[in-house]
Design brief:
The structure is a single chain. This protein has helices at residues 4-18, 23-27, 31-36, 51-60, 64-74. It has 5 helices and no strands.
């Protein structure tokens, strides 16, 4: 199991590598908000993984990579063209 704080820190590191967001911006957001951005649709802002599902994913994940893969595999949120 990976802890929420470790997931959030890993997500911040990945965002910093991409160079799209400044360090200060990423550090100003709580761990919960960092994780929430990965389970919420960027288009309609609908959360596509409920808290119980998110907790189960976090409990099963052993790394940040596991977490991201499980979120992607669990996401069935689709927008029509």
């Amino acid at each position: 199991m990976i802890e929420r704080v470790d997931i959030a820190d890993g997500l911040r590191r990945e965002q910093l590598k991409c160079g799209n967001l400044p360090h200060e911006f990423l550090e100003s957001h709580s761990d919960e908000i960092m994780i929430e951005t990965y389970v919420t649709c960027g288009i309609c802002r609908e959360r596509h993984i409920i808290e119980a599902q998110l907790s189960a994913i976090i409990a099963e994940a052993t790394s940040l990579t596991d977490f991201v893969k499980m979120v992607i595999n669990h996401d069935s949120h689709i927008h029509s063209s």
